[in-house]
Specification:
homodimer, alpha+beta, PSTPO5379-like fold, seven-stranded antiparallel beta sheet, four-stranded antiparallel beta sheet, 7 helices, 22% helix, globular, D-Glu_cyclase (chains A, B), Putative hydro-lyase BTA31_11945 (chains A, B), Putative_hydro-lyase (chains A, B)
Chain lengths: 268, 268
Amino acid sequence: MGMISLRHVNEMRPDEVRALIRKGEITGPTAGMAGGFTQANLVILKKELAFEFLLFCQRNQKPCPILDVTDPGSPVPSITAPDADIRTDFPKYRVYKRGELADEVTDISSLWEDDMVGFLIGCSFTFEQALINNGIPVRHIEEKRNVPMYQTNIPCVPAGRFQGPMVVSMRPVPEEQAVRAVQVTSRFPAVHGGPVHIGSPETIGITDITSPDFGDAVTIKKGEVPVFWACGVTPQAVAMHVKPELMITHSPGHMLVTDVRDEQFGVL
Amino acid sequence: MGMISLRHVNEMRPDEVRALIRKGEITGPTAGMAGGFTQANLVILKKELAFEFLLFCQRNQKPCPILDVTDPGSPVPSITAPDADIRTDFPKYRVYKRGELADEVTDISSLWEDDMVGFLIGCSFTFEQALINNGIPVRHIEEKRNVPMYQTNIPCVPAGRFQGPMVVSMRPVPEEQAVRAVQVTSRFPAVHGGPVHIGSPETIGITDITSPDFGDAVTIKKGEVPVFWACGVTPQAVAMHVKPELMITHSPGHMLVTDVRDEQFGVL
């Protein structure tokens, strides 16, 4: 980031961060940028799949909490960041053709077509900040790793061609703070909400907690219980199985910084 | 209802109520039936409008809280009442052709087409029960009237062809209970959630509180403040303006009794 320090970027407004991303001056992960503002995942599909995908998200709100949907052909997320452009304002994108990763780019303007629909999906950054604000440790942040994510045996509710198991993220929580972790994250249904499972990984089909399907393993200390939240990787994984002609997502960790404050998604 | 007393129906299971409705033995309003279970409003549209309407609801969740969407061509609300049939299990339907009321019927099987999509939308019965359980009076129930509803100057977020102002329902609440009314109803974002306005009707474009646009006027006593919630009439009113070739809705007060308990929609 050259002369731009992370502390400086943490204190920037969302539109300032997006301007730097758009100019190519920020190309890395967005964690910690424009502190207090919600960041969003991205799935772009052609309009012919948009109804089924929106329906899938509507039926599976815990893994797929929709924050904004662009009008077909419009790159503007008019509710969450009306002066943003989803073609340029994520630091990095993944381009999938028929379900296979075809390219990773920092700008998708040249790929944009007028029947594309962008789905912005809530991400766990929002509730992790709430956990930290409540004195609940977030291990993968402490250990500077990616959150561990696992395929489960929990089926999503299908919608048309979209179907598949839920992916969850795991955070070890001291047993005496597990109830508070449920309360804190339940306030934020728009960003995955309360956990889907507490305790035994086997119950939800995870055979080896030390070897996550995505992300990195983290330390589970004595006296800690694994707590599982529905994960925003789910809709991408499910969409990938449909093998759409073209699908574009953000690269992991490279999100859109929206104009909405995390607390604005709090229910009470 | 012949030999079926209302008290008896209040204690029935949802599937028992639906069976009586399907057989034509119940054709009246469903208020008070299968107590504790959520009732749902209905909008049926052809698939070509389904994406835009679902997007409209997604963007306007307070007036348009989606509980379930049927697969195109399927009359089964698989999430909220998997053994129900939306063609027969509402006591009464309204059929709109190009935005005009064309018919009111008790069964729409003969109108059903294989590109139809049914949207079940949360209704205020759920949060009214929560208000009553908290000792907050609900005036229109006390006065045995329909809830008063008003057009406002609050614009909905448009989606494609769907746009228009929010319709709100009003309940007078004793000033000292207004905060509790906000708390109680905020627990239920799936059924309109917290109020959209408290106090002066003029602020939201209502010029005469004694003459509602839909439903009946109710008494506002000294020391009471009018509290306004987003109303499920909004999506019907908005859809009507689009003048779809065919739209079918429930008749006011004649809802589907689902298998989901009211409390299951509570956030914490």
